[in-house]
Design brief:
about 200 residues, about 25% strand, globular, 5 helices, 4-stranded mixed sheet, alpha+beta, two-stranded antiparallel sheet
């Protein structure tokens, strides 16, 4: 038993020698210690709002009052990258909200473009400001005529020329050139601009 006491004392002294020493002065730590933490990647979640993916563009609808028809611009939301073809596609495919339930600015407005009409393409002629608009169901058999056709073309021309790249519009019926109905019950084979439909302003 007496022999165990010195052995225990020696063991305790040995443990004391292994204890962590303390310093009265601050010690600067190496930046190497923090590199694993700095190397840790983080993931940031971003929220896309509707204003990030859409933009407002004007399309032209019709107001009929007292026997006269006038063009009226209304704002529609389209994809932020939309060009003139996408804006015209909106004019063709989205019917006016005549009751103004969802789009109050469209209350009382209508469109001369038939629901059965289809926009095939809208292509800017290279090196010009002429937009070639190809459609189905607007001209000829199954299409419309007279003042209704003029009003529909007026909507298309005024909507297309909102774009600063477009000054004039020519029309195709499923790829074939067709004359445009304009004011005063006239037609023309030439590209048309807003002045051809000034009676509706």
């Amino acid at each position: 038993m007496r022999r165990l006491v010195p052995l225990l004392l020696a063991a305790l002294l040995g443990l004391g020698a292994c204890a962590v020493s303390t310093n009265e002065e601050p010690v600067e730590l190496s930046s190497d210690l923090f590199e694993p933490l700095l190397a840790t990647t983080t993931t940031t979640t971003t929220t896309t709002t509707p204003s990030d993916v859409t933009k407002a563009e004007d399309v032209y609808l019709l107001r009929v009052s007292g026997g006269s028809t006038s063009l009226e611009a209304v704002s529609r939301d389209v994809d932020v990258g939309a060009g003139v073809q996408e804006v015209l596609a909106n004019l063709f495919s989205v019917r006016p909200d005549a009751e103004g339930d969802e789009r109050p600015a469209e209350a009382g407005l209508t469109s001369a473009i038939p629901e059965t009409a289809e926009l095939v393409s809208a292509t800017l002629t290279p090196g010009t400001s002429i937009l070639v608009v190809d459609v189905r169901g607007l001209f000829g058999d199954g299409g419309i005529q007279g003042p209704a056709l003029r009003d529909a073309l007026a909507q298309i021309v005024w909507t297309a020329t909102v774009s600063p790249d477009v000054n004039n519009v020519s029309f195709r019926n499923d790829g074939n050139p067709v004359p445009a109905a304009i004011d005063n019950d006239e037609t023309t084979d030439e590209p048309v601009n807003r002045s051809a439909y000034s009676s509706q302003r």
